[in-house]
Amino acid sequence: MDDLDLRRVIYRRLAETGAVPSFGEIAQLVGGSDEAVSSLGRLHDRHMIVLDDRNDPGEIAMALPFAARPTGHRVVASDGSWWANCAWDALAIPAALDIDARIEATWLDTDEPVGLSIEGGELSSTDGWVHFAVPARRWWDDIVET
Amino acid sequence: MMWPLTQAWYGDRLADDYTPASIDHLQRLLDSVGLTSSFWRLTEDGSIV
């Protein structure tokens, strides 16, 4: 299985279940743990996934716009839910999946529920701001921080 | 503005034949929604590569 095939598996699993395949499953798919670490590393280097392997090798933190772990931004649809890494990714998940969904998050300044949703393929409200703290050319210096 | 940008930026992420967009393409997306300041340049010198 080549790297792009693995990327497809990861993204399809996230789309269908909201979770990434386990490292063990990936290792079985690509022919072993060493190859899994290598393949995931190459995908990380190409910015196709984001690894956070401080605890375990090959642990996937993100496959943008999806988060592999619970965050403060949740996207909920009629047939599934997903964690988003940030406000922009919370909009991006319905866009990527081409679905209607509501966003469960709170405004940073007021702690009030965001109350945004995608309905009929359109954003329900144009009120509010998405804050980008990092200049675009620096986003991938530390994508987790971004 | 964010919704059209988001759809264009992420709309093909799950396509079977997905390939990463070029920096040029992404920069033009940002330009197309009026994000033209230096903050929104994807390269150090602001040029489209």
Describe what you observe in this structure.
The complex is a heterodimer of chains A (146) and B (49). By secondary structure, chain A is an alpha+beta fold. Chain A has 2 domains: 3-63, Orthogonal Bundle (Arc Repressor Mutant, subunit A), CATH 1.10.10; 76-129, no CATH class. Chain A has helices spanning 3-17, 23-30, 33-45, 87-97, and strands at 50-51, 60-63, 66-67, 73-77, 80-84, 101-104, 116-119, 122-123. An 8-stranded antiparallel sheet of chain A has the order 1-2-3-5-4-6-7-8, covered by helices on one side. In chain A, α1 (3-17) crosses α3 and α2 packs across α3. The radius of gyration of chain A is 16 Å and the shape is globular. The relative contact order of chain A is 0.11. Chain B starts with a helix and ends in a 17-residue tail after the last helix. The model of chain B has no long low-confidence stretch (mean pLDDT 87). Chains A and B meet through α1, α4 and β8 of A and α1 of B.
